[in-house]
Specification:
Blueprint lengths: L1 H15 L12 H10 L2 H11 L7 H13 L3 H12 L6 H4 L1
Helix pairs in contact: 1-2, 2-3, 2-4, 3-5, 4-5
Length: about 100
């Protein structure tokens, strides 16, 4: 099922240039974190923009987003990561370091 979620998300991005499925809280966190590390810059940016619409993100997803701030060289990804983290009501201390 997780693989299908990823496939549908990629298809959605190719078709619409946006990701709405990732915004849903039922979307598997494992798939999100994997996509944030393996997909193209444009796809990761779209994922992060979709995550801005989520009221709560899991610790694993937050860590994956924070890692993009340290490791990613594409400014669009870093910019979207900042906005995704900024929409969260609170962040754990390890994310803020």
């Amino acid at each position: 099922m997780e693989h299908r979620c990823q496939q549908w998300s990629i298809y959605e991005f190719k078709l619409l240039q946006k990701m709405h499925l990732c915004r849903e809280s039922e979307f598997p966190d494992k798939v999100l974190t994997e996509m944030l590390t393996k997909e193209s810059d444009n796809t990761r940016t779209a994922i992060l923009q979709a995550l801005q619409g989520r009221s709560q993100l899991s610790g694993n997803v937050l860590e994956g987003i924070a890692a993009l701030l340290k490791d990613d060289t594409y400014s669009g990804v870093r910019h979207s990561a900042v906005h995704a983290l900024g929409k969260q009501p609170s962040l754990p201390d390890n994310i803020l370091q």
